[in-house]
Write a structure and sequence with these properties.
With 431 residues, this protein is of the alpha+beta class. The chain has five helices and 21 strands. Helix 3 runs antiparallel to helix 4 and helix 3 packs antiparallel against helix 5. This is HlyD family secretion protein.
């Protein structure tokens, strides 16, 4: 009986060589798979239950309180209040251009030189004409006027002698000592001398200081001097000089070019006041006011800020771009600032002390009349209507509806709605 019982509890290999199905803790492979599946289902059910009961984990943002500045951001370019276009006043050939683009120049510094040999000759000819006119006027005063006075004296003496002869002839005719023809000859002689005296007196008067001949010679001298000034002016036009101190921002001429009036050969940015011209979106026009302060930076030097002040708001709107042009004065421009540089400007349009601030990314319907946020209240989030004030740089001022320290759900958390339970995860916890 004993041997029979032992043979029943002993496993023996099959006759064909296959092994008997193994067992683990009394379970087969099939039973193990079923157990694992049940465990996975239980884990998922527990997880879902926890999520359902406690809510999803949501990264929240905290409402803060601090000083707040609202700015309007825009970009534009550096421009001088005005630019000076430089061109020639006469047609000519360029002989030399002693300056380069970007060079700083001083007033009266030569910028362009034209060929001037013909105009130099014209100046010399005009100078000779002036000298000739002066010599003629001097000769009139020193030679002709004294000679005219002497001739008048001689003519008067001849007239006196002729008059005496006439009186003698008249006396002799009464005594019948001469004929009538002799008396007539004496009369003619006296008339001739009297006429000559009158003519020479007129000539002498014309040679005096206010006389007509003096006036004529003085007019000739003035004409010659005017001709000299004209020739000198034309010669001066051959050297184009800087009208003011500044920086040469454009040069469109080279030696050998033939230039003429009306062409802009160079452009000069005067030294002194520097301005920035920027375009502001039309929707921000109501925020702008003259004398508002701003911080600006050149795109080439983004880390170097400088101050500016709003000095001009264009009364017109650019309908194509939906913007308004404004100008900002730079009282102390940095050395690196150049004409036409691209700049970014933050105009300070308003400020608030101890403002309650929320991220604009947490505000729903931010541009509507009733913006709202999802605010954490215990373990649930609820819709909270807020009143907004200043907005700038991704932050919004909250006038009513929130307090410092409140926690709100970002708009990006689209799976969370009003009344949902959540497990709050602050930004610091997510690191």
């Amino acid at each position: 009986m004993t041997s029979t019982s032992d043979s029943k509890n002993t496993s023996e290999p099959e006759a064909d060589g296959s092994t008997v199905t193994s067992k683990i803790f009394g379970l087969t492979h099939k039973h193990i798979g079923i157990v694992l599946l049940v465990i996975a289902i239980l884990v998922l059910a527990i997880t879902a239950g926890v999520r359902f009961m406690l809510g999803p984990r949501v990264l929240l943002e905290i409402v803060v309180q601090r000083d707040f500045v609202q700015t309007v951001v825009a970009s534009g370019r550096v421009e001088a209040p005005h630019r000076v276009d430089i061109g020639v006043q006469i047609t000519g050939t360029v002989r030399a251009v002693p300056v380069n683009e970007g060079q700083r120049v001083e007033v009266n510094m030569p910028l362009v030189e034209l060929e001037s040999s013909e105009l130099h000759a014209a100046v010399s000819q005009a100078k000779a004409a002036v000298l000739l006119a002066k010599a003629e006027l001097r000769q009139l005063h020193e030679v002709e006027a004294p000679m005219a006075e002497q001739e008048v004296e001689e003519a008067k003496a001849n007239q006196m002698a002729a008059l005496q002869d006439l009186e003698r002839s008249q006396s002799l005719l009464k005594k019948h000592l001469i004929s009538q023809s002799s008396l007539d000859e004496a009369v003619r002689a006296e008339k001739v001398t009297r006429s000559k005296v009158s003519s020479l007196q007129s000539k002498m008067i014309s040679l005096q200081t206010n006389g007509s001949q003096v006036a004529l010679d003085e007019a000739s001298l003035e004409q010659a001097q005017a001709g000299l000034e004209l020739a000198q002016a034309k010669l001066a036009y051959t050297t184009l000089k800087a009208p003011v101190d500044g920086v040469l921002i454009a040069r469109n001429v080279e030696p050998g070019d033939v230039v003429q009036p009306g062409e802009t050969l160079m452009q000069l940015s005067p030294s002194g006041e520097t301005q920035m011209v920027v375009q502001i979106e039309e929707k921000n026009l109501h925020l702008l006011a003259l004398n508002q302060s701003a911080l600006a930076s050149a795109d080439a030097y983004p880390d170097q800020l400088f101050s500016a002040q709003l000095v001009y708001i264009n009364p017109g709107i650019d309908s194509d771009r939906g913007s308004v042009e404004v100008k900002l004065q730079v009282p102390e421009p940095p050395d690196y600032l150049r004409q036409d540089m691209t700049v970014s400007v933050d105009i300070k349009v308003a400020s608030r002390s101890d403002a309650v601030l929320v991220s604009s990314a947490a505000v729903h319907d931010v541009n509507s009349v009733a913006p709202w946020v999802l605010k954490l209240d215990g373990k649930q989030v609820h819709r909270q209507v807020v009143t907004l004030g200043l907005r700038s740089d991704g932050m919004s001022e909250v006038l009513t509806g929130l307090s410092a320290g409140d926690q709100v759900v970002p708009v990006s958390s689209v799976t969370v709605t009003d009344g949902d339970r959540i497990r709050p995860l602050l930004q610091a916890d997510s690191l």
